[in-house]
Amino acid sequence: MFSFLCTHIQYATNRGNIRSAITIFPQRTPGRGDFRIWNTQLIRYAGYRQPDGSVWGDPANVDITELCIHHGWTPGDGRFDVLPLLLQGPEEPPELFLLPPELVLEVPLQHPTLEWFGELGLRWYALPAVSNMLLEIGGLEFPAAPFNGWYMSSEIGTRNLCDSQRYNLLPEVALRMGLDTRTTSSLWKDKAAVEVNIAVLHSYQVGCAAVTIVDHHAATESFVKHMENELRTRGGCPADWVWIVPPISGSLTPVFHQEMVNYQLCPTFRYQVGGCPPPRSWVPQSRLPPCTLAQALTFFLDVAAPPSPQFLQLLATLAREPAHRQRLQELSQDARLYEEWKWFRCPTLLEVLEEFPSVGLPAALLLTQLPLLQPRYYSISSAPGPSPGEIHLTVAVVTYHSEDGQGPLHYGVCSTWLARLQPGDTVPAFIRGAPSFRLPPTPEVPCVLVGPGTGVAPFRSFWQHRLHHLRAGGAPLGSMVLVFGCRSSALDHIYRREMQEAQEEGALSQVLTAFSREPGTPKTYVQDVLRTQLAAEVHRVLCQSAGHMYVCGDVTMATEVLQTVQHILVQQAGMTLGQAGDFISELRDKNRYHEDIFGLTFRTQEVAFRIRSQSFSMQERRQPGPAP
């Protein structure tokens, strides 16, 4: 970067015959840092903050001066010390580079008639190269694109040297001129400013170094011609009146009386926050990434979940109808009433607003108060061996009517979204380990798998893994019995062929199916199959062979399977019901009774209490008391 910038300065300076130039560094790329020039201009004079608060040098450059010192620059002690360049490449810290003195052309300021003016020791550099603006072209952004033209005399003579927040030379020049500075009516500021501008023009044009410069009258006449051409050609010309009107004799120039409209066109240069870190006006916060309101409601905020009591309390304050306000307050304060309303209606945010139409909901409240969309967890139903680089899911698309089947149709948030995906679409996902729901470390250990419906998902990965093991010539495996349940053989027995193949090749020892809606057969559930066909096998696996049992599915099924296993142990092993419960608790502790239960998002407290009350846990009976 520094080499290119030195070339830019040398080419543009051209020994005083200034040439317009621009150097463009690579564009901004997502995921990669920017090329940045921290200096506002390639050539600038330092500003040193003094103990009394004053500034020696150029007050406009105090911050960048201190940054350069912080990065290792040894400062001088003059009023016109050229600053080094502070440059930064992608993913790198800023680095300091000293400009070679022979590269920076400076002009000592002399006055054609005031001989003492040279004694002030004033000078200025020849090349005004702006380096802190961002160039945007066709949607591409170039954060480092320094460019230059040449100076207008009043930029140096009025703005840089005479402004009170810059070098503030007017009092010193007026004193040398013998002007009366006690009253503004003497126009001493105007007289002194004119002489400074005369000195700048004289020094640049006919001084020891002839350097390209333009006076403000010629510059404004040139701009008016440009503006007229743009109006004829394009019907308009964006311009900022404050910047176009020169800082001296503005009303004497044609642009002073010209109406201007400041609007943005592309390509364009835009101001950045110098080269320094941006101000903390906007601070990232962890709740939401930077996004539009539409993106927040689509991807990050949960608009389908029933609003919480706290959210209903906020809605009550926004309701204009007294009846709506009272009803919302009741729902937010009465826990039993809220639970009944929530489970009967299962309302989405839209349905709540339809029920209480007088609520005026501001967008800011949505962003700050709506719950975040939580990830949906699915069991992986594929094994990495036969399906490398792939993850298979077995998902039931959820639809249901609220209000005891008489209400509006609701859709499962994630399952419906997945069902609408097209090949090639991106699915944001991550993998969460399940250390307590894996195949036994020893493949000879017998297993019983119970998985109705989509509960078969992890077991598909089990039999795929075992099938891959056998096909690769692996050692013989222990028995594995699968109990699968679905509505009918013709409707949702989706892995029938895979199960048959796995059984034929020895990955599954036995496959038993329970149909709850099979024509001409009584309703049968997986717990019925366990009780009537697998009681002896369950006893052998759990009590005699140190085997494992896996249960995957909704919480109601898992609870009933648990009760069935307890009764099998009572009948087959001669245990009491309490002993059977204690035995299963021990199996859990030894990681031999595995459960992957879903559906806990509905009536969580009720479900948790029911599981605890029916599990006959040895620890719960030893430590009586309410469940936490």
Rg from alpha-carbon coordinates: 40 Å
- Order of strands across the main sheet: 20-19-18-21-22
Rounded to the nearest angstrom, the distance between the terminal CA atoms is 64 Å
Main beta sheet, described?
5 strands, parallel
The assembly state of the depicted protein chains is single chain
Structural class: alpha/beta
Secondary structure: helix percent: 25-40%
- The count of helical stretches stands at 22
Overall shape: elongated
Mean pLDDT: 89
Domain count: the total is 3
Q: Please identify the top-level CATH class of the largest domain.
A: Alpha Beta
The third-level CATH topology of the largest domain is Nitric Oxide Synthase,Heme Domain, Chain A, domain 2
The CATH homologous superfamily of the largest domain is named: Nitric Oxide Synthase,Heme Domain,Chain A domain 2
Strand percentage: 5-15%
Number of strands: 22
Can you give a write-up of this model?
Helices cover 37% and strands 13% of the residues. With 628 residues, it is of the alpha/beta class. The protein folds into three domains: 2-271, Nitric Oxide Synthase,Heme Domain, Chain A, domain 2, CATH 3.90.440; 293-369, NADPH-cytochrome p450 Reductase, Chain A, domain 3; 447-622, Nucleotide-binding domain of ferredoxin-NADP reductase (FNR) module (Rossmann fold), CATH 3.40.50.80. The strands form eight sheets. Strands 20-19-18-21-22 form a five-stranded parallel β-sheet, sandwiched between helices. It has a three-stranded antiparallel β-sheet with strand order 1-12-9, with helices on one face. A hairpin with a 5-residue loop joins β3 (47-49) and β4 (55-57). The longest helix has 19 residues, at 188-206. The chain is elongated, with a radius of gyration of 40 Å. Mean pLDDT is 89; it is low at 600-628. Belongs to the NOS family. Its EC number is 1.14.13.39. It catalyses: 2 L-arginine + 3 NADPH + 4 O2 + H(+) = 2 L-citrulline + 2 nitric oxide + 3 NADP(+) + 4 H2O. This is nitric-oxide synthase (NADPH). It comes from Otus sunia.
